[in-house]
Amino acid sequence: MNIGLASAKSGVSQRMIRHYERIGLVPPPARRDSGYRDYNERDVHRLRFIANARDLGFSVAEIATLIGLWDDRKRASAEVKHMALDHIDALDAKIAKLQAMRATLHDLAERCHGDERPDCPILSELAGTSLPESPQS
């Protein structure tokens, strides 16, 4: 099948398919006599695997490792579980940072009058000062 059909069947854009080929997540497909890429069902399955892993937030390097484990029928599932648990820890850390950012921004927005006054604690915080003045003042 051509890249357009592989894209439609996998849900991965043609641009990303080419990118995954360039970085080695997807092996170069066979080529037709015309030079066009010729994908098979296994390629489409691999593209779906990559898309699902990306949707879960795995990095390209992690996806490469996961693909290696997926391809290795003698793998130990413990390796896969370890990667998943490490990824959960990383996600938890990101969530904590985002929650702290949200709380800070919420507090600043609550303290901002949001009217015609020039004083704005949001801008003051971003400037790293308690002064509401801009650098040109």
Chart the SSEs and their pairings.
Elements: H1 3-10, H2 14-23, E1 30-31, E2 37-38, H3 41-55, H4 60-71, H5 77-111, H6 121-127
Antiparallel strand pairs: 1-2
Helix pairs in contact: 1-3
Task: Explain the overall architecture.
This protein has 137 residues and is mainly α. It has two domains: 1-74, Multidrug-efflux Transporter Regulator, Chain: A, Domain 2 (Orthogonal Bundle); 76-137. It is built from six helices and two strands, in the order ααββαααα. The chain has helices at residues 3-10, 14-23, 41-55, 60-71, 77-111, 121-127, and strands at 30-31, 37-38. The chain has a two-stranded antiparallel ribbon with strand order 1-2. Helix 1 packs across helix 3. The longest helix is centred in the C-terminal third of the chain and has 35 residues, at 77-111. It is elongated and about 70 Å long. It starts with a helix and ends in a 10-residue tail after the last helix.
Query: What order do the helices and strands follow?
Result: HHEEHHHH
Largest sheet: 2 strands, antiparallel
Q: Helix fraction?
A: 55-70%
Question: Structurally, how many domains make up the residues?
Answer: 2
Q: Indicate the multimeric state.
A: single chain
Q: What top-tier CATH class of the largest domain fits best?
A: Mainly Alpha
Order of neighbouring strands in the sheet with most strands: 1-2
Mean of pLDDT: 92
Q: Examine the secondary-structure arrangement and name the CATH architecture of the largest domain.
A: Orthogonal Bundle
